[in-house]
What does this fold into?
Amino acid sequence: MYLNLGATSAVAVILLHTSSAFLLCQRAENGSIVPGASPVHYASNSTDHVFTIECLDMYPNPCVIDSYCGIKAKGRFKTKLSDSAHISFNVTNHFDDGRTGGLSGEDDLCNWENIVQNSTKQCPPREGNATVTWTVLLLGGWLPEARYEVQVKVTDGDETVVDLWTDFEMKFKDGYYLNSNPGVDS
It folds into this structure.
């Protein structure tokens, strides 16, 4: 069963725009793997993408429930994007007992991503080099321990800006809720 949250709800619950420390870029061994320190792959032919990613890092890697997970992508926009560029996502979680769940949504690109060009926030982005960052707050009340498949696609009209996919397992840090009170029985 999928929960389709409206753009406002999804943004308020899932994403907060902040900056964070990131790992150094690493060279990709396989053409389908996005270069950098993350489990992210291209979901479609990256030579057709408007945003060419030089490096995409995720911190921490893997992400931990009840904490922030940051993403930083460095690359180049081949062309200027329009105000109508948008992002869509699909998240599916797979539980050990075979159950699945998930959520999906879409919104204007500029509501989700922090794009910096020439030391200035710029959205929609212009042609040229850019650093794209976003930070996700992984709320334990919303996200269970499971294996997650995530697909994120950014489009501008008929053009694919970037199309990414990842699959990873996410757990609570040290097996307990970070906001719990150790030593107190529930």
Summary: Helices lie at 7-14. Residues 1-31, 176-186 have pLDDT under 50 and may be disordered.
